[in-house]
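Researcher: Sequence recovery benchmark, item below. Answer with residues only.
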C-alpha cells in the first residue's frame, strides 16, 4: 500500500507542467506545489511576495468615502419632511407614527432603497464604516446614542451642520435636534455610513 507522499510524488512527476496541483483524499483536499527548476522557485517567490503585498494593501485603512450626493440629499429631504410626525413605539410609517429605528428604516428604504435592521442596536452592529469623531460626519450618516444603561438604544439621521432628525420618545413628535445639545453630545456613541 502506497503512502500519501508516494501518491503525490507519482502525480507531480507525471504531470507535464510540474506546477500547482490539487490532490484530494477522503478526508480533505490538499494543495501540493512541485517546483522542478530554479526559475520556477524564483517565480513562486515573486508570487508569494505579490500576494503578501496585495493582502497588506487591502487591509490598510482607506479614507472614509463621502456618501453619494443624490442619495444623501434624498435622505435629508425625506427625513426633514417627516418632522412633526407623532412618536409611536414600534411605529414605522407616517400613518402609524414612528419610533427612532422605524423612522430611520422608513427613510432609508423609501429614499435610498437601503434595507436596514429593525432595531437601533442591530443597526449599530451593521458592517458599515464607523465614525467616532463628529467632525467627520456627512449627511445621511446614522447616529447612535447610549441612552439606557450604556447600551445603544437610540438612532438618528444626520442632516448636516451638527443637526439630526430623530423620533425621541420625549416630545411626542419626530424633530430636528443639534449635536451640541448637552444631553445628545453626552450620549453620542458613534455613527455609521451606510450610504456608500
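Model:
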Amino acid at each position: 500500500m502506497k503512502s500519501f507522499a508516494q501518491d503525490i510524488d507519482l502525480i507531480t512527476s507525471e504531470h507535464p507542467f510540474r506546477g500547482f496541483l490539487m490532490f484530494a483524499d477522503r478526508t480533505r483536499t490538499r494543495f501540493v506545489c512541485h517546483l522542478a527548476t530554479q526559475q520556477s522557485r524564483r517565480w513562486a517567490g515573486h508570487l508569494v511576495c505579490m500576494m503578501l503585498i496585495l493582502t497588506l494593501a487591502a487591509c490598510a485603512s482607506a479614507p472614509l468615502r463621502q456618501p453619494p450626493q443624490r442619495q444623501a440629499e434624498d435622505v435629508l429631504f425625506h427625513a426633514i419632511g417627516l418632522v412633526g410626525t407623532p412618536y409611536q413605539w414600534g411605529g414605522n410609517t407616517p400613518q402609524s407614527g414612528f419610533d427612532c429605528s422605524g423612522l430611520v428604516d422608513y427613510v432609508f428604504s423609501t429614499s435610498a432603497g437601503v434595507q436596514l435592521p429593525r432595531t437601533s442596536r442591530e443597526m449599530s452592529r451593521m458592517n458599515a464604516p464607523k465614525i467616532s469623531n463628529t467632525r467627520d460626519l456627512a449627511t445621511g450618516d446614522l447616529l447612535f446614542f447610549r441612552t439606557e444603561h450604556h447600551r445603544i438604544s437610540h438612532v438618528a439621521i444626520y442632516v448636516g451642520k451638527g443637526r439630526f432628525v430623530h423620533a425621541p420618545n420625549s416630545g411626542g413628535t419626530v424633530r430636528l435636534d443639534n449635536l451640541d445639545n448637552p444631553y445628545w453630545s453626552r450620549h453620542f456613541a458613534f455613527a455609521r455610513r451606510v450610504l456608500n
